[in-house]
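Subject: sequence -> structure tokens, single chain

Hey, anyone have a minute? Need the predicted structure for the following. Not urgent.
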Amino acid sequence: MASGLSQQRRGLVRVLKLAERGGYTKLLIEYPDRLAGFGYFYIESHLRYCCVGIIVIAEKEPDDSQSELIKDLLPIVTSFSARLYGARGGKRTRDGFCQLVSEVSSDGKRE
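Reply:
Had a minute. Here:
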């Protein structure tokens, strides 16, 4: 998940440069957030300018607003935690955060 937040994405840079040269007309992705955690709209606009369409094969129905907010915050927390504590610490933090979210979601408040 956090990879979509990274500024250093060589694969994405190659995809954008190839689009600018007219190397393809359709980009097939599984989920929009796998292409970019933030800024998907800008990538989509740039690709459209290059005459490239994006085909999303597994776009899900929108969740309720609380679940959607949690899904948006989780990559941010994971990314910052991984930078602070290393890759293992990020996983532990993400797992702990997921546990906390499930506890809060199950009864509306933390025990």
